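Justification of computing resources. Each target in the renewal requires a structure prediction run like the one illustrated here; the chain below, 648 residues long, is used simply to show the kind of job we budget for.
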Amino acid sequence: MNSNYSAQNITVLKGLEAVRKRPGMYIGTTGIDGLHHLVFEVVDNAVDEAMQGFCTNILVVLEGNDIVRVEDNGRGIPVDIHPTEHVSALELVMTRLHAGGKFDKKSYKVSGGLHGVGVSVVNALSEWCEAFVHINGKVHTQRYKIGIPEGPAREIGTADLPYAYTPERKGTVVRWKADTSVFETTTHNFDALSNRLRELAFLNKGLKITIRDERLSTPKVHDFKFDGGVKSFVDYLNENKTVLHKEPVYLEGKRDDGLGGEVEMEVAIQYNDGFNEIMFSFVNDINTREGGTHLVGFKSALTRTLNEFLKKSKHAKKLDETLSGDDVREGLTAVLSVKVPNPQFEGQTKGKLGNSEVKGIVESFVNEQLELFFDKHPDVINNILEKSVLAAKARIAARQARDATRRKNAMDSAGLPGKLADCSEKDPAKCELFIVEGDSAGGSAKGGRDRRYQAILSLFGKMLNVEKQRIEKVITNEKLQPIIASIGAGCGNDFDVSKIRYHKIIIMADADVDGSHIRTLLLTFFYRYMTPLIEQGHVYLAMPPLYKVSYGKKVFYAYDDAEKERLLAESGKDVEKVNVSRYKGLGEMDAVELCDTTMDSAKRNIIQVHLDDTVEAERIFTTLMGEVVAPRREFIEENALLVSNLDV
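Resulting structure tokens:
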């Protein structure tokens, strides 16, 4: 290393060079989430126009060749020459960091994109980008290559526009192709994008947002438009649940922030008879997945208010201690949306709100409004308190069950279930846990595994449907206890993903309807009580073959009917000598076959379970595993063709 350190060692990055040098600082990651972040930055600008009342329609198009186009009917990015920079405002917005109309609070009262880096970062991280602005019946455009203008902004005709044109059109169109040298993948996920766009439509009453996937031969289209705002959001989330009160509690208001501005708040809450908490929080339409001061204020107000009403109710004598936050949020579906003039987010990805003043504002508002509502609706508060008290009793029982389990494990020197055949490797990042259906298949898996890094946990029979059970039933269930102990990171609120013993947890079940049911039961358990396992990509599905195809001394395996037909076609004239056997289950394979087809990391097929759309995941688990029968029957009827080739 050169010990000399002088001025010549100082690098000055000009323009958008800093973004390309350190993209993670601006979009969080260069993986799929970072790729989608580009889309959301452009969409957020259009939504900001909607929040000011100037935009009613947004269109997101996934074109072929990984091209994205976002259109809005807002005011359009200004195209006149900036008085001091002497270039068009369009060029400033597209190519300069911290250039935008959101700093002086005249053009935008509130906004999600307050850093002024959004669309310029999209431009910097694209192989090419082009912007079209429709103002006063004219079209202005500018094209860029890795963030650098190919020429000045100019007025053009309409004949060659890469989208539909109408004379009355107004607004901005941004079109780009993400840079393959920057991103790990440039293929966008339609469902993940749809999830965020649906959220934005819920949060902006009356705004229509459309996403169209033109990569398909028949384009797939989702239209989102909700006139009820966050109340509609809660209705949507609870659609297939049995609710405790017919209408969501809806609170809306404004409060002075003490800094010369106002904080606007929208809250909708509704309880159902389930045991899971569903909560979404937003600041200026940005999904604050990591929460922040606004969410802390809401939770504190809810807990405090319910405890105050508990003291005055007939339920007080049923409980010797106060309700905890977890007690009052069991079965709660809530959406909190706040608009803050000067939000302080943690990082450019805006995952958590840091404004200290917002906690007190939200807390006092929610406390005051909930008191008024519950005073007028005693039946609603009575139902909620009854459920919360039952939740508290269950929490106490769960604590006692955990203590008993810990004492039992402490007496066992290994602390691991007897059915677990563990691996010798101690680095979790290198270890795999196969959860195998059936003792017979478990025996084959133990014989076919690589003992250095592959562990086997065999289970027999179907397990508990956790969608219908409280936590104390889950942690004491004899089928689930071995899984909890083997993974080694706790369960429910005690789950700590940093303590997992295996970074790949692979569900290996038969390729039939029963196997699908077991996979669904396990996925429900992981989703409800070990959510970070799925969020961080630790859960996989093994893909055992359906057929063994042999002719002569050659043996092949087919994982679906199409592959079987291809193998039969390749056998040519000797087709009469081909032997095709259909596997009824994993137990029919010996250790060598199971290793070669399903376990060997060099040969196997496994599917990583992703949580791309949290809202739809919630609805699917409720539909398939919840108490209400009609939605499940409808789902099965609609998707019957997908399982028509499975043995029943």
